[in-house]
Amino acid sequence: MPRAPFSYAEVGATKPGGPWPPGYHHFRLRRRIGAGRELFERAGREIRCYRMQRGIGIFHSASTPTAEPDTELTVRLGPIVAPCRVVYVLDEPDVRGFAYGTLPGHPEIGEELFAVEYFPDDAAVYGIVAAFSRPGAWYTRLGGPAVRVLQRLTAEAYLRTLPRR
Fold it and tell me: Which sequence spans correspond to the domains of the chain?
């Protein structure tokens, strides 16, 4: 069975250091969650197991137990089941996480990154949520600025699910 295409052309544009694609709302939220390599490793593992989505109660299903490229997953946004696919996984010495992109049927169009960063100089660990999106359904267009506020609040909630210290 052929896979559904992503609902946007700029696949992979949430990768750290790259430019944001034009025509979308963009945000990047970065919060310190503590310090130490052990915290970084644990948070990285938990992110890959959908800790952020599970932690705020929107995880619905995934085709793999941990995020891997091409994993199909769905999140539940109230009564809506929103399809996504993992675009890439970050498994670098000081950055761990993954990004997923929206598929047809998702109320938004775009991509979201969930990651943790480690800074060896002072052992600081930061959680990151970054995204670009635009409305993909009539009701998200109608929601306008309220949808953006909700996305920001959701990103803050994602970061609160990460382990501390």
Answer: 25-160
